[in-house]
Structures are given as structure tokens and as C-alpha cells.
Amino acid sequence: MTKSELIEQVAQKVSTFSRKDIEIIVDTLFDSMSRSLSQGDKVEIRGFGSFKIKERDGRQGRNPKSGENIFIESKRVPFFKAGKEIRERINNGKKDV
Amino acid sequence: MTKADIVEIVFEKVGFSKKDVAAVIEEIFETIKGTLEKGEKVKISGFGNFNIRQKRARRGRNPQTGTEITIDQRRVMTFKASQLLKKSINSQPSA
User: pTM for the complete prediction?
Assistant: First the structure.
């Protein structure tokens, strides 16, 4: 499913907004989540999951092509943890171990 | 940031009723969950991809008691951030 297919499906179920409005809502939704994460905040959607930023220290690495030693700068990486509801739903309602 | 904050931001942008905005946002996440439940991946361009992966059964250990247990095969949901999101996360000064 792509973003436009998502918009299409939601538009079929929702009568309060036009397809165009739903497109704006979907875009604003993911944009607000991106912004929040970019500011270092975490995003928690109950039943779905949470997004967090982890700090990765810089480290000594190697260019696999040239074999040259390089320093890899520290960076921030996004992390996702699936929520309880979705974890159980994708396993046919089976409770977590 | 929680769902309530997202509702607030979207409401400020599109207006209408906050209750209706909340219902649409609920429906968006529900549609994504329903799609993943069917084993289909969800690709949100500019944000990232949600995927379902099959994990094999494996031997594990209860870290508290040390008892050996079998961890059943199961499906897990994964998220891979898009290049755009990764870039955006690293473009801001460290928090």
C-alpha cells in the first residue's frame, strides 16, 4: 500500500471530508511526526507504536571499496517499536510471549 | 508527541471539527494496521516503510529465571525510515 492508496481507502470510509482534505490530513500527519522527531522528541501512537531518536556515537570505519580508514561522524537514527495492539493483531490475536 | 497533539496540529491546518479530525486520524492508523495485518507492507513516501517480517521459532531463555523456553514463530512489524526522514533528523542541532 502506498500513501495514495492509503488516502483512497480512508476517503472511501470517511464521509466528513473530501478526498483532497484527507490528502492534506495524511500529509500533515506524517509531516508533524517528522518534525517532532527531527526536534528530538518522541512520537507515541497508542495501539500503533512509538518512534524515538537514538544517538549513535562516531566511530572508526573503513571504506569497503578502497580499504581506506575513515571516521564515521556521530548521527541520530530513528527507532520504531510496535505497539501491543498491532503486535497481537499481526499474530492473530495471540498474546505476546 | 501523542495522537492528541497530531489532532491539534491537523485541526489548526484544516479546521472543521476536532472530533471529525480525530476520527479521520484514527481511521488512517486503523487502515495501516489492517493492511499490515493482511501481511501487506505500507509505504509512505517521504516518511518511511512499515513492513511485516516472519520470525522463525527459536530457543530462548527467560532472563529472570534462566529457564530455557521455545519462542514460537511470529510476525513482527518493522519500520524503515526514508532517506528524507533520516536527513531531516540529522539536519537539526543535537537536542
Answer: 0.85
